[in-house]
Amino acid sequence: NDSSGNLRIGVAYGGISFRTDRFGNANHSLRGNALSAVDIPWHNFPLGDSSRSVSVFFRIDSTYPGGGRSLMSWGSNVIGGRFGLFTNDSMIGLEYVNGTVVTHYVPDTFWHNLIVTYSMASGGSAGVQLYIDGMPIVAPIINTPVGSFSTDTGSWHNIAGSLYYGPLYTDSWSGEIDDVAVWDRALTPCEALEIAYNGQVYSAGHIEGKDTVCPSESTLLSVVGGIGAGSWSVTNTAVATISIGGLLTGVSSGIDTVKYIVVNPCGSDTAIYRVRVLP
After folding, report:
1. Which sign does the torsion angle of CA 167, 86, 48, 98 carry?
2. DSSP track, 41-86
3. How far apart are CA 98 and CA 131, in angstroms?
């Protein structure tokens, strides 16, 4: 089912079934058995050499079936004519018929996210960026580089397989697939990180602990629900001080504001906590 509102509904072929997704929801992920696939007969995937991004969450069967296994693919069977996300016994990334942009990969049975972005401005295989679980691959391995892509509608426009029809179901997926998405632009590194971490790449959470102390008395404050490393501070050091570990110490009577700030390249968040130093 297409949840984007664009009605790009898939048609199941072979032994497709449904399993628990990465959030624990029953029947919310696609289950391929290496003899199945889902065709997207009416699609608006980026064609030619236009910019694009594809994201797929996946989990491989406990016994990897070997060979190349397709997660998401569309195009034709000529070099540069297909844009396909795939894994094999030791690599993961993009394949475009006799050419790949990949990184080393050891199959396991956990949920993972693969994002492939392509910037037309950079051109061909040089414009491809891989993200594994939100982390960019700095130096991917490029086999048979191309200067541009020529992706067309072809006979591939599907999830969990290359050719989506039987009886062989070439390169079909064996395991689960969840939340496949396609964009007509190259995602930014922060967007890739947000997708892999379900929108949460930084959060200051909230502060808990005693909100009153006496002068020279200390109490330990803590952060609940924070994502990413942060720093502690107070607005008035004449009233209270706080250590890098969150140890609040009263100095003189008054009201002070404690801040816990999380900052990373994708943004920042601040948690605020009011404290009183008693006379």
Report:
1. negative
2. SS-----BT--EEEEEEEEE-SS---S-EEEEEEE-SSTTTEEEEE
3. 21
Neighbours of 15 (CB within 10 A): 15
Does residue 102 sit in helix, strand or coil?
strand
d(CA 266, CA 161): 34
Cis peptide before 145 (omega within 30 of 0): no
Give the tokens for residue 160. 């969990």
Chain mean position to CA 71 = 15
Is the Cβ–Cβ distance between 236 and 270 less than 8 Å?
no
What string of pLDDT tens digits covers the 279 residues of the chain?
A: 888 888 889 999 998 999 999 999 999 999 999 889 999 988 889 999 999 999 999 999 877 778 889 999 999 989 999 999 999 989 999 999 999 999 999 888 899 999 999 999 999 999 999 999 999 999 999 999 999 999 998 878 899 986 767 777 888 999 999 999 999 999 999 999 889 988 878 889 999 999 999 999 999 999 998 877 899 999 999 999 999 999 999 999 999 999 999 987 788 899 999 999 999
Does the pTM surpass 0.90? The reply is no
The burial of 274, by beta-carbon neighbours within 10 Å (0-12 exposed, 13-18 middle, 19 or more buried), is given as exposed
Q: Which amino acid, one-letter code, is at 110? A: F
